[in-house]
Write a structure and sequence with these properties.
By secondary structure, this protein is α/β, with parallel strands linked by helices. The protein is built from six helices and four strands. A four-stranded parallel β-sheet has the order 2-1-3-4, sandwiched between helices. Strand 3, helix 6 and strand 4 form a beta-alpha-beta unit. Helix 4 crosses helix 5. The chain is globular.
């Protein structure tokens, strides 16, 4: 696997042993460069309750480099969202921005969120597949 950004948007209803978790584990243990963004960290922190879970997330994310959007990324993400909407595909603001960051930094996105497969049909970016 090449340099990758991991949305880590593994849904709570995901089944154990899914290939995305194994791929992330392999990447982290195998020395691949794994990056993330503050958007992902914020979503994770908002999704878990309790100081223990918060501290574990913060500790694990400390080692991951961040990519950050700039003004042009926000503009391009709006274009992605509008392009998808015109094609009848509903896309969230954060999902559009994550797709744009993958495009800008030539990253592969690893996620269990099916919304990104719909986005990738409208806007080409690298999406991990088992």
């Amino acid at each position: 696997m090449d340099t990758s950004v991991w949305s880590l948007a593994f849904r709570r209803d995901s089944k154990p042993g899914i290939p995305e978790v194994a791929a992330l584990t392999d990447a982290l243990q195998g020395g691949d460069i794994v990056v993330t963004t503050g958007l992902v960290l914020q979503e994770l922190l908002q999704g878990f309750a309790g100081p223990k879970a918060r501290d574990q997330i913060l500790e694990r994310f400390t080692v991951l480099p961040f990519v950050s959007p700039d003004r042009d990324d926000h503009i391009a993400a709006a274009d992605i969202r509008n392009r998808c909407r015109r094609a009848g595909v509903q896309v969230g603001t954060i999902d559009a921005l994550l797709a744009q960051l993958c495009i800008r930094y030539r990253l592969t996105l690893l996620t269990t969120d099916g919304d990104f497969r719909r986005i990738a049909k409208q806007v080409p970016f690298s999406l991990w597949a088992p």
